[in-house]
């Protein structure tokens, strides 16, 4: 396990600011009796996003790149300007070189990178490293790429990224030993969808060296925590994310490609009609997130997460999954990593699906199953609480009261 390192104290955000943010989500304010704690599955949408979609559909709805009349021109401009908006939001250091391709979400985006870029990049004898304990969507595309290459007579070795059993983080020391002269590609995750931890991509880069492309599943980071591609610690080649987890509509997402290592990323096949309403929602969502302040959102959700894990870690029947060193409210303690808005746990006596039903009977909407984790099945079911800016201290305290009564 990597040596623990102290993290700077996090000051809780102003509750008045959070209340102003919460009031901008119509579905949340319309149901004060319910606590939506499933934002890792999909986020709720602020009024500004809903209004932007309504405005687009009632003033400019047309097909992009298919006509020269004003509505079509405005739609084409919307699509192209949103590509640049994605780069800006991600703090792209070289927007003139990079590219953005819109998808239906992270799953399609990762598969597009695998089929349209990786398959043509690899040659016989190459190796790739992929995560076998992250989301299934960040494993299947790379296995599929290996099968497609095998059908063509190209043998590529698909190796597993090593993990630390205790923390849920990648085992970066073991990774350094796993990297060889034929390692050509790494697929990794930014924030883990089960454990909620930052997966320390900078250590992957250090292990594989400066020339190996890294593809990052950013489904749980974009829109939840700051993503700065101009930071050397995030030197990756692909960032793939879902708009619907970042305040936009379902069916929206993007692949950002740095285009600095390997061939330029160009999706294959004929590109049909884009999801223009989804793209309009994504543009509005990025604007809303920037105005709200992603760093402020991250501070708020991390404060709530710490409040939950500090109490939950002391309740005997509960096992909190992920890094045990982070189960402390005193942020001055040396912890390996904080949880970014995600807390996943099991009860020693109550099956997780039953616990999910019990919590809903008290007004809490949580995820309770195997969480789409690669290699997991029904026996690995757990309860996941995932937070965003519309969640409150009062909701966490009410949840803890119920969980304590079940201890």
Structure notes:
By secondary structure, this protein is α/β, with parallel strands linked by helices. Helix content is 36%, strand content 14%. The protein has helices spanning 15-22, 26-29, 47-59, 70-89, 106-121, 140-151, 172-178, 201-208, 276-292, 294-312, 352-361, 393-405, and strands at residues 5-6, 35-36, 99-103, 127-130, 157-160, 183-189, 214-217, 238-242, 253-257, 318-320, 334-335, 342-347, 364-365, 367-369, 382-386. The strands form 4 sheets. The chain has a 7-stranded mixed β-sheet, sandwiched between helices. Helix 8 links the parallel strand 6 (183-189) and strand 7 (214-217). Helix 4 crosses helix 9, helix 5 runs parallel beside helix 6 (140-151) and helix 7 (172-178) packs parallel to helix 8 (201-208). The longest helix is centred in the N-terminal third of the chain and has 20 residues, at 70-89.
């Amino acid at each position: 396990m990597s040596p623990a390192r102290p993290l700077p104290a996090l000051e809780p955000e102003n509750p008045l600011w959070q209340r102003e943010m919460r009031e901008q989500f119509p579905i949340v304010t319309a149901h004060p009796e319910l606590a939506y704690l499933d934002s890792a599955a999909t986020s709720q949408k602020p009024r500004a996003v809903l209004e932007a979609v309504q405005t687009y559909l009632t003033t400019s709805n047309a097909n992009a790149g298919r006509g020269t009349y004003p509505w079509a021109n405005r739609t084409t401009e919307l699509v192209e300007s949103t590509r640049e908006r994605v780069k800006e939001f991600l703090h792209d250091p070289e927007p003139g070189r990079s590219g953005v391709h819109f998808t239906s979400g992270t799953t399609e985006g990762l598969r597009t990178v695998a089929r349209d870029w990786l398959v043509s990049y690899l040659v016989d004898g190459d190796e790739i490293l992929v995560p076998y304990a992250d989301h299934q969507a960040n494993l299947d595309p790379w296995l599929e790429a290996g099968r497609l290459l095998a059908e063509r007579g190209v043998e590529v070795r698909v190796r597993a990224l090593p993990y630390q059993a205790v923390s849920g983080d990648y085992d970066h020391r073991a990774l350094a030993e796993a990297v060889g002269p034929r390692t050509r590609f790494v697929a990794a995750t930014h924030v883990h969808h089960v454990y909620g931890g930052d997966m320390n991509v900078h250590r992957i880069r250090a292990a594989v060296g400066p020339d190996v492309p890294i593809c990052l599943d950013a489904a749980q980071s974009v829109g939840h925590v700051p993503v700065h591609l101009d930071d050397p610690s995030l030197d990756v080649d692909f960032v793939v994310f879902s708009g619907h987890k970042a305040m936009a509509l379902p069916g929206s997402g993007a692949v950002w490609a740095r285009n600095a290592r390997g061939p330029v990323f160009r999706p294959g096949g004929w590109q049909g009609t884009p999801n223009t309403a989804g793209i309009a929602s994504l543009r509005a969502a990025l604007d809303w997130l920037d105005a709200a302040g992603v760093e402020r959102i991250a501070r708020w959700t991390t404060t709530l997460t710490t409040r939950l894990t500090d109490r939950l870690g002391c309740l005997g029947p509960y096992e909190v999954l992920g890094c045990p060193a982070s189960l402390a409210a005193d942020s001055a303690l040396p912890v390996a990593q904080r949880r970014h808005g995600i807390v996943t746990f099991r009860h020693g006596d109550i099956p997780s699906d039953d616990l999910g039903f019990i919590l809903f009977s008290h007004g809490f909407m949580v995820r309770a199953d195997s969480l789409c984790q690669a290699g997991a099945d029904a026996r690995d079911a757990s309860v996941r609480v995932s937070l965003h800016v519309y969640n409150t201290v009062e909701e966490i305290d009410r949840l803890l009261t119920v969980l304590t009564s079940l201890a």
